[in-house]
Design a protein that fits this description.
The chain has 6 helices and 8 strands; from the N terminus they run H-H-E-E-E-E-H-E-H-E-H-E-E-H. By secondary structure, the chain is α+β, with helices and mostly antiparallel strands. It has 2 domains: 41 residues; 157 residues, 3-Layer(aba) Sandwich (Glutaredoxin), CATH 3.40.30.10. Strands 1-8-7-4-5-6-2-3 form an 8-stranded mixed beta sheet. The chain is elongated and about 85 Å long. This is TlpA disulfide reductase family protein. Keywords: Membrane, Redox-active center, Transmembrane, Transmembrane helix.
């Protein structure tokens, strides 16, 4: 005759064979919180290290402290007022000679304008700031003989949009039509946005450039161009 099982022994065996219960497992919420805390500590550590390295590089002069335009060289004094964003160069820089079309569809080259100071404005009809500043460029041209100081608005609109280019320039009397539908200024002149205006000396070299809209009929612009036209 079998002896009855001890009740306590039976209970203990059942608990040993039973799968782990929620009581004996680490709570899921606790696991999640631990993971989040570890990630936060890692992010903070990386951020602190990055700041320390950047500050050290900044102190050593290996990174610029100002991401804005740099005015240097003999023309830096003109980077003021309406030309506060003007980037001037320590020495004149060569600019790649490209071909584009005039208002009559004739091919011309940038080098054709050597012998004059050129205010080379890269724009498009779909660029709102370009259209805002265009009247000031027209006013600037009215103050100079175009054989000495030329405002050259170079549109990068599509060829089929020539009528829109002409219409826009008619609103600013005195400015000629020039178009480059191949958009060469972006790759060959390093232009990343519009409007961008490049100032060329009488040798056809770049001496300054300004990215963005400006008031081109301001006195400081005239002072700069007069200095270059001497």
């Amino acid at each position: 005759m079998n002896e009855p099982l001890d009740e306590n022994t039976d209970t203990a065996n059942a608990e040993a064979q039973a799968p782990q219960t929620e009581r004996t497992r680490p709570p899921r919420k606790l696991k999640f919180n631990l993971i989040v805390a570890a990630l936060l500590v890692l992010i903070i550590a990386v951020s602190v290290a990055a700041v320390v390295l950047f500050r050290q590089a900044e102190t050593d002069g290996t990174v610029p402290t100002d991401s804005g335009p740099v005015a240097e060289g003999p023309l830096k004094a003109y980077a003021t007022g309406a030309l506060a964003k003007l980037e001037t160069h320590a020495a004149p820089r060569p600019i790649e000679d490209i071909s584009f079309l005039d208002g009559e569809g004739k091919t011309v080259k940038l080098s054709d304008f050597k012998g004059r100071v050129v205010v080379l404005n890269v724009w498009a009809t779909w660029c709102a700031p370009c259209k805002v500043e265009m009247p000031t460029l027209a006013n600037l041209q009215k103050g100079y003989d175009p054989q000495k100081v030329l405002v050259l608005p170079l549109s990068i609109d599509k060829a089929e949009d020539k009528a829109a280019v002409e219409k826009e320039l008619k609103l600013s009397e005195g400015l000629p039509v020039y178009m480059d539908s191949e958009i060469q200024p972006m790759s060959k002149w390093g232009i990343v946005g519009m409007p961008t205006t490049i100032i060329l000396n009488t040798n056809g070299q770049e001496v300054a450039r300004l990215s963005g809209e400006a008031k081109w009929d301001a006195p400081e612009v005239k002072a700069l161009l007069d200095a270059l036209a001497k």
